[in-house]
């Protein structure tokens, strides 16, 4: 079976060879934390949200996309968005390496979006075959993108898409990066 990957967006100011959860950045790299935490403006409750099974907070884990970055970029473009048309690199991480850490799939299927509690049923163990099954653009996420476009708002990339959550920090020195605007690197 060919390698299966998950993806983590690389911040333009990224330096070093390790990915850290947001809460770890607060103590180690406060200036990086200050920039990164801005993505939670209007959703500050997530900073204290508990992730069942891993016994961690939402920002005590590293978040990975199951979708290839090109699929995200291509979908946003097809809908008509322009805000994302810049070169952006993503770390490509083998799922086998993620499995060396406590990790889970967050299916992101909860119906009650106003609830500030993640139901345990929305999480499952990470398995390569399941990552492959969930690596396409979910219809619910696509509908969300279309709704945001109609409302002239910028969508959250994973508003209704699954994530892989890894508890720990990850040495990424040996991983390649992919640019989300380059289709030739979209193969798994």
Q: Separation of termini? A: 11 Å
The backbone outline, from C-alpha atoms, is globular
Largest sheet report: 4 strands, antiparallel
- Poorly predicted sequence stretches spanning 5 or more consecutive residues: none
Task: Give me the Rg, rounded.
Answer: 16 Å
Number of helices: 6
Q: Give the overall pLDDT as a whole number.
A: 89
Strand content: 15-25%
Structural class: alpha+beta
Helix content: 25-40%
Can you write the helix and strand succession as a string?
EEHHEEEHEHEEHHEEE
- For the largest beta sheet, what order do the strands appear in spatially? 5-9-7-8
Number of DSSP strand runs: 11
Query: How many domain units?
Result: 1
Write a structural description.
With 188 residues, this protein is an alpha+beta fold. The protein has one domain (5-185). The protein contains 6 helices and 11 strands. It has helices at 22-28, 30-36, 69-79, 95-98, 128-133, 139-150; strands spanning 5-9, 18-19, 50-51, 56-57, 61-65, 89-94, 103-106, 123-125, 163-167, 170-171, 177-179. The strands form 4 sheets. Strands 5-9-7-8 form a 4-stranded antiparallel sheet, with no helix packed on it. The model has no long low-confidence stretch (mean pLDDT 89).
């Amino acid at each position: 079976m060919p390698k299966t990957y998950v993806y983590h967006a690389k911040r333009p100011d990224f330096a070093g060879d390790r990915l850290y959860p947001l809460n770890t950045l607060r103590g180690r790299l406060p200036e990086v934390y200050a920039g990164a935490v801005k993505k939670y403006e209007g959703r500050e409750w997530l900073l204290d949200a508990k992730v069942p099974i891993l016994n961690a907070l939402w920002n005590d884990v590293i978040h990975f996309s199951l979708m290839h970055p090109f699929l995200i970029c291509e979908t946003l473009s097809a809908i008509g968005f322009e805000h994302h048309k810049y070169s952006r690199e993503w770390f490509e991480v083998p799922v086998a390496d993620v499995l060396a850490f406590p990790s889970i799939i967050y299916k992101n299927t909860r119906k009650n979006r106003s609830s500030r509690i993640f139901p345990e049923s929305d999480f499952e163990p990470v398995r390569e075959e399941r990552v492959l099954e969930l690596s396409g653009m979910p219809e619910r996420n696509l509908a969300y993108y279309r709704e945001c476009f109609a409302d002239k708002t910028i969508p959250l990339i994973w508003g209704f898409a699954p994530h892989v959550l890894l508890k720990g920090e990850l040495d990424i020195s040996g991983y390649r990066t992919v640019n989300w605007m380059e289709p030739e690197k979209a193969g798994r």
